[in-house]
């Protein structure tokens, strides 16, 4: 019982530590560049050509949910028409969900080009 209570703070502490190190290191790096007289435009370089994050999230979430739905549909069809057993459900769902995320990745690249 005690080990379960210890694991959760350790996980949250590790996540906090990673984010803290990332942001504090980035801040120190930016301060050092500013002290040396670097232009502040280098901090936003490359962000002007990308699609908004909400478009990417909605696109990938929609494709993931459609892929899961198609996976359930195909798994039900395979289960009822073959003798593969119930092991066909997770395999088909993960296969179609992964394919839909791959399609979403390619569509996101096309969004960035526009």
From TrEMBL:
Domain DUF6249: 7-108
InterPro entries given in the database record: DUF6249
Transmembrane segments: 6-23, 57-79, 91-108
Alphabetical keyword list: Membrane, Transmembrane, Transmembrane helix
Coiled coil spans: none
Protein name: DUF6249 domain-containing protein
Biological classification of the source: Bacteria, Pseudomonadati, Bacteroidota, Flavobacteriia, Flavobacteriales
